[in-house]
Write a structure and sequence with these properties.
about 200 residues, Glutaredoxin
């Protein structure tokens, strides 16, 4: 977590790719309805890093974890937050699960909150997935009202599944990975950079 990763993040910021990726419903974004099993377009994924002065307003949402515990954007302020949008039958979600868990463990002692955001499954289906893949961070069930998805509508929308967002301590999107997290080291760099920013 040093100069090498900072260079990678700078390169990602320069590229500022915003190409949609992952398991995208044929009709468009996540909010266009519930796709049938396998009804997705798999692409190579892209990353976007956003300089602090170019970030939008802090996200606002209230939701519940799979065990019913309430969670809100306001309650997460002051931490760097990683949100991974997923559902159980999405193949890239299954592929990246172990890498995301590894990054989560890497930052276990830092001021970082990891949260899954399940966009279509029941609590039981979501738990089966997390048990199968050893995911230990909590998951928000977002299928009923799309509260978390709607909080990010705009230029950094999670328009594909999977999508991973890194929020700064103010709750603003600092980085986005659209599609499969194929480079967990780059995700860790985005987290490092957000941690290093002044509160």
């Amino acid at each position: 977590m040093g100069a090498g990763r900072l260079g990678l993040a700078a390169a990602a910021a320069a590229l500022a790719l915003a190409v949609l990726a992952g398991c995208q419903p044929q009709g468009g974004g996540l909010l266009d309805g519930s796709p049938g099993e396998g009804d997705y377009v798999s692409t190579d994924g892209s990353t976007t890093a956003i300089l602090p002065e170019n970030r939008g307003e802090p996200a606002e949402f209230e939701a519940a974890l799979e065990d019913g515990t309430p969670v809100s954007a306001e309650g997460l302020r002051g931490q760097v937050v990683v949100l991974n949008f997923w559902y159980a039958d999405c193949p890239p979600c299954r592929i990246e699960a172990a890498d995301l868990e590894g990054v989560h463990r890497e930052f276990a002692d830092a001021e970082v909150a990891f949260l899954g955001v399940n966009v279509r499954d029941t609590a039981n289906r979501a738990r089966s997935f997390t048990d199968e893949f050893g995911v230990t961070y909590p998951t928000i069930l977002d299928a009923a009202d799309n509260a978390v998805q709607l909080a990010f509508v705009g230029s950094v929308s999670p328009n594909a599944v999977p999508t991973t967002l890194v929020l700064d301590r103010q709750g603003r999107v600092a980085a986005r990975v659209s599609g499969l997290v194929s480079d967990p080291g780059l995700l860790a760099t985005f987290i490092d950079d957000a941690l290093a920013e002044a509160p």
